[in-house]
């Protein structure tokens, strides 16, 4: 066997290893394709760990409510979305949030956040399933951004994740008594009825806001994992991006 044959064998073995990281086959893999396959597999594994870590954190009691950046609020009036934003919907949300803290609304806002935490604790399989199907075709762009894989997951699977998270949110809202409390408040005051806050609208709004918070945390976690050179997978990531 010549030195050329030995070099080719070595390159073929490396191509097979990198392709295996991405769950693919090693047949007819060119060096650049092998590099992309290896990087794709590394990013998928990194994103899976970031997702697991995020959902574990957000499943802790009070995690959503205690962080003002991801705290979930009531939907806005007039179908303008969720959260404690501006306009009349924002005013209503702030009034109810204040009433919540004073115990006047049965802690409805707190219950919404508790329901999101319950859903987060059960959401690992649906996030892992979505991540496992990522092709990460745009590898260079994804690899160059601290939260590139997270952004790609949201673009490619955001709607699917919303649909699969919604039943978990509905179950959580029922479990913490949020739907029952909404009905009770609606009977006592016409404000919520006039605002059009139904079970369906509340569930959809909480799901969207919960996803916003989850993706925010996953992106932050992805950045931390990329910045840690002691992690073997991230070391491979740096090697695949930076050189041979």
From TrEMBL:
> PROSITE patterns in the record, alphabetically?
TAT
Top-level taxon of the source organism: Bacteria
The identity of this protein, by name, is DUF4197 domain-containing protein
Record organism: Novosphingobium beihaiensis
């Amino acid at each position: 066997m010549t030195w050329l044959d030995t070099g080719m064998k070595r390159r073929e073995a490396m191509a097979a290893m990198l392709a295996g990281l991405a769950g693919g086959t090693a047949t007819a893999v060119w060096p650049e394709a092998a590099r992309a396959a290896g990087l794709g597999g590394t990013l998928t594994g990194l994103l899976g760990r970031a997702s697991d870590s995020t959902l574990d954190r957000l499943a802790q009691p009070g995690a959503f409510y205690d962080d003002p950046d991801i705290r979930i609020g009531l939907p806005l009036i007039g179908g303008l979305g969720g959260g404690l934003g501006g306009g009349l919907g924002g005013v209503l949300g702030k009034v109810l949030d204040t009433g919540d803290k004073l115990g006047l609304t049965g802690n409805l806002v707190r219950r919404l956040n508790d329901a999101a935490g319950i859903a987060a604790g059960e959401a690992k399989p649906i996030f892992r399933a979505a991540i496992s199907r990522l092709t990460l075709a745009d590898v260079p762009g994804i690899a160059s951004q601290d939260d590139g894989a997270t952004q790609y997951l949201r673009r490619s699977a955001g709607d699917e994740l919303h649909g699969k998270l919604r039943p978990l949110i509905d179950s959580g809202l029922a479990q913490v008594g949020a739907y029952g409390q909404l009905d009770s408040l609606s009977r006592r005051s016409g404000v919520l009825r006039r605002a059009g806050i139904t079970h369906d609208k509340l569930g959809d709004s909480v799901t969207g806001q919960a996803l916003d918070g989850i993706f925010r945390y996953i992106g932050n976690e992805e950045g931390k994992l990329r910045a840690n050179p002691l992690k073997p997978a991230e070391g491979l990531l740096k090697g695949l991006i930076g050189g041979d």
